[in-house]
Amino acid sequence: MNAKQSDKVATGVLYLMSGTIVAILALLLLYILWNGIPHISWHFLTAPAQSFEKGGGIGVQLFNSFYLLILSMLISTPISICAGIYLSEYAKPNRLTSIIRTSIEILSSLPSVVVGLFGFLVFAVQAGFGFSILSGALALTVFNLPLLTRNVEDSLQSVSFTQREAGLALGLSRWETVIHVILPEALPGIITGMILSAGRVFGEAAALIYTAGQSAPPLDFTNWNPFYIASPLNPMRPAETLAVHIWKINSEGIIPDAKAVSSGASAMLIIAVLLFNVLARYLGNKMYKKFTGV
Question: Mainly localized where (predicted)?
Answer without folding.
Answer: membrane
